[in-house]
Amino acid sequence: MARKSDIRPIVTLRSTAGTGSTYVTRKNRRNDPDRLVLRKFDPVLREHVEFRETR
Question: Average of pLDDT values for 44-53?
């Protein structure tokens, strides 16, 4: 049986707006094998932008 960290690794989400803002979260590799893209709040721009997973 795989350990929890293997199935749900910690990933960093970086802002596509280029402000350098990041979020840290976990994702399920079985459901989302590709890179994660979420629309979240960027505190530097003070608006919602896309955040993409970085390795």
Answer: 97
